Amino acid sequence: MSGNPGNLKVTVWNEFLHEKKAGGKPAEIYPQGIHAALAAHFSAQPGITARTATLEEPEHGLTKEVLADTDVLFWWGHMGHDKVDDGIVQRVQQEVLAGMGLVVLHSGHAAKVFKALLGTNCSLKWREADEKEIIHTIAPNHPIARGVGERIILEHHEMYGERHEIPEPDQVIFISWFAGGNVFRSGCTWERGLGRLFYFSPGHETYPIYHRQDILKVLVNAAHWAGEPAAAMRAVQGGAPRTGTANSVNEKEPVHPL
Amino acid sequence: MSGNPGNLKVTVWNEFLHEKKAGGKPAEIYPQGIHAALAAHFSAQPGITARTATLEEPEHGLTKEVLADTDVLFWWGHMGHDKVDDGIVQRVQQEVLAGMGLVVLHSGHAAKVFKALLGTNCSLKWREADEKEIIHTIAPNHPIARGVGERIILEHHEMYGERHEIPEPDQVIFISWFAGGNVFRSGCTWERGLGRLFYFSPGHETYPIYHRQDILKVLVNAAHWAGEPAAAMRAVQGGAPRTGTANSVNEKEPVHPL
Amino acid sequence: MSGNPGNLKVTVWNEFLHEKKAGGKPAEIYPQGIHAALAAHFSAQPGITARTATLEEPEHGLTKEVLADTDVLFWWGHMGHDKVDDGIVQRVQQEVLAGMGLVVLHSGHAAKVFKALLGTNCSLKWREADEKEIIHTIAPNHPIARGVGERIILEHHEMYGERHEIPEPDQVIFISWFAGGNVFRSGCTWERGLGRLFYFSPGHETYPIYHRQDILKVLVNAAHWAGEPAAAMRAVQGGAPRTGTANSVNEKEPVHPL
Amino acid sequence: MSGNPGNLKVTVWNEFLHEKKAGGKPAEIYPQGIHAALAAHFSAQPGITARTATLEEPEHGLTKEVLADTDVLFWWGHMGHDKVDDGIVQRVQQEVLAGMGLVVLHSGHAAKVFKALLGTNCSLKWREADEKEIIHTIAPNHPIARGVGERIILEHHEMYGERHEIPEPDQVIFISWFAGGNVFRSGCTWERGLGRLFYFSPGHETYPIYHRQDILKVLVNAAHWAGEPAAAMRAVQGGAPRTGTANSVNEKEPVHPL
What does the pLDDT read at residue A6? Predict the structure, then answer.
């Protein structure tokens, strides 16, 4: 049944470009990269095994073997969106449709994998003005919001504002307020095929947002929620590969006699 | 019907391959092609202007000018899905996101434009066994179902069955029953960007389904519903081109002073 | 606007208690009552006929005859929620399920008719601090948002904040930002039975909000959208009463022979 | 996180009227009543504790203490719907809004608790013709459908057919096919307040449907899914009572200084 299938397999993908620029804020905040920071936190949780993958590895680190062994994939990208190979995008998309979870972070709103799965441009408004963001919990009973409380306050962040060009979410989990007058659906869920998607907007690379315990709580919750179907499949299939539903099936024999 | 903004501009796209095969059923039923049959019916309605476009025309007949002058695009494709140029697919997708309606028919469930907008493979079960289909109206208050009544009965049709790998629809308008024991969500709506989508499964090329008044009523209703946003925009913009929201916007000035 | 079926019949219900208190702000802003101000504006629109009904009239002014002749009912209530008769609540609920539109305004979030149709308490957070509200358009292609633009700014209003205990809306049309740090889904749609519902939060009785052209544009749009199914039924039925689906039906004869 | 919180507390409510009629089919199939059969099965599952409650007990067996100690309530009713006290209906409704799960079975579609939470009449079509029902899985990745497979076939059942007057479900998990030509959304989910609802139509009292392993698998899955929020709350609150959100809150202090 639903729930803790012993061991959840997380892969954190990061383009890992900002953090490599010497002397920059991102390098200071995440010396090993955002992926390493997140993976370390995930691996420290009971029942989670995390690995990382980055843009400049062969196949962006997302080989068939890695994806087949991933219950939930986290995605952080920004300046390197265009460098992601279309074949890998399709591979990720098919794995999601076959049951792998996908958690897209911050500027990943414009990542190819996100746009391919949602079918829209996912455009939005933004402003770098170091302004206060208040993340309000809209769906307090959703597993992703458990233990988060009514709100999370970020004193300084980049503004992301509506209208975000996304399909109406299955559920809006969080809505953010920005001091400059904007609002943003900052936590949204969708299902595509057999897979679960979660978009969570906090995490600009120049702020230490992924070091905050409240934000990390959301991400751990999201890992469990989005990864649950794939983990449950693994438990049943004993490690046999996920089978997607890419092709239509000719069901020649009727279920009821004609 | 709802929202008649004087003149609704319909384009019926058809791959137009089956009907060109001499001596075949499709050629017998639709001697000028499915597109011509549908366009003639649309044009006979007050307030609708219809044109056609087909696969083998330059740019598949879907030039920028044609799409900019289209409120709602109907799409029938099957054996030629792979021949549709990816650039045209993207063009259609962007026009839908900018407000053009899209009505996808029957085997168009596997068309590139449909999959690009929904983000899934849209696979399903099928059986050619000449079996009875009963299309039940599930959302009788929806503009697409107006005047249709409780059900439409097709004595002979190809079976399309669940699970159809689509995102949960905004609304399920029709569910079909098949004599061989299958069910299918045969009429579904979604919104993507500023555009409205409707998928309607009846219409296998070897049955005269698009000559039926009850089916044509659904299609005329769907033209009005899906085309309404674009027609309303035209009324306001006086023919100026639709503007999509493909790109994010840097809103440097806050709405409320920081 | 969309779907103008010649003549749309609007009834504006108001408890009409605040405005009767001599010397108060509401009396100053709406000397004839909120209902009279709104009905006058509706009646000034081409194709709309509006009437009013209030709490202290017999049957609260909502006789069977009045409701049967109403395509869309607007509802403003606050201090008199408990005085609304349960029989009238059920009558309104059944008319909505049979196709009448319902637009619930501001403090009507806690009205019996709204809670009966949504099934939740519709509780929220509030604060009377005269603070700025920015209403952001989230669904710019929805008929209710047509011509409204990206945002409406109210310099002074009562704060309504999340979490609003409502079922996930079919569509979130507007989200409001408040200077004091709150957000609110200020425009939401649902369908219940054959009827359409819209909740719109602006309109505290001590501010002249219903005299603003931008707010009135939303309300006129909402009247057309929510009233469209009932108006379309009238057009077809020639004035015969709406028939709901209150009772289950024994369909003894199978559609397909057993 | 989500999942098995050690011990799930299930209460099975049954009007228990049909089974008490001597010599009838229901008495033969469920000699101790439907509630007893289901509770015995639940209690045999690891991690579940089940109890029962019936119409003719004081407070229908649904005292405040019982409900406060219930994570998920199953509801089977039919001929006794009108005998259920309105105060108890409100009590159950408030517990669901505060986080308790509710699984409504078969003729419970017309139960007061179901109608109160959904806001509609929940009317449908029915036929007692001993016909075949094929339950198709539409959402195979949903926890309720895990391990169920593509379909469940009931050789003989009462027909329930569309249109079922329910709000558009959050997810349609199952759609049923009936030999007589009808279809029915036989498994549907909604959320209301903090609680999860599932409606599952199989289970007419004259067929031994609740003795089938495939049907019981769905019900155990549903118990875990619908009861998960309440069980998770218990784990955190250490047995302190659930707190609903019945009342609006005056948040006098702004989150952000005005």
Answer: 62
Q: How close does chain B come to C191, measured CA to CA in Å?
A: 9
CB distance A202 to D113 below 8 Å = no
Mean pLDDT for C122-131 is 97
Are C235 and D110 spatial neighbours (Cβ–Cβ below 8 Å)? no
CA angle B42, B45, B48 (to 5 degrees): 70
pLDDT: which is higher, D241 or A109: A109
Can you tell me the distance from the alpha carbon of D146 to that of D143, in angstroms, rounded to the nearest whole number?
5
> Residue type for C124, please?
L
B183:D181 CB<8 A: no
List CB contacts of A174: < 8 A, sequence separation 6 or more: A135, A136, A137, A138, A145, A185, A186, A187, A200
Is A150's CB within 8 Å of C163's CB?
yes
Instruction: Decide if pLDDT at B227 tops 80.
Output: yes
Chain A neighbours, 3+ Cβ pairs < 8 A: B, C, D
Number of helices and strands in chain D (H, E): 6, 10
User: pLDDT tens, D36-90?
Assistant: 999 999 999 999 999 999 999 999 999 999 999 999 999 999 999 999 999 999 9
List chain B residues with CB under 8 Å of D140.
Answer: 163
Q: Chains touching chain D at 3 or more Cβ pairs under 8 angstroms?
A: A, B, C
Apex CA B159: angle with CA D163 and CA B29, to 5°?
Answer: 110
Residue tagged 């959840």 (tokens) = A8
- Taking CA atoms, what residue in A is nearest to D154? A256
pLDDT above 60 for B80: yes
| Cα angle for residues D9, D13, D17 (degrees, 5° grid) | 155
Cα–Cα distance, C163 to C109 (Å, whole number) = 13
At residue D245, the pLDDT reads: 81
Q: Averaged over C41-59, what is the pLDDT?
A: 97
Note whether B177 contacts D181, CB cutoff 8 Å. Answer: yes
pLDDT at residue D2 in the model: 37
Give the global pTM.
Answer: 0.96
Whether ipTM > 0.85 holds is yes
Q: Which residue of B97, B129, B190 is in closest CB contact with A121?
A: B97
> How many angstroms separate the Cα of B37 from the Cα of each of A104, B33, B52, D31?
45, 7, 10, 63
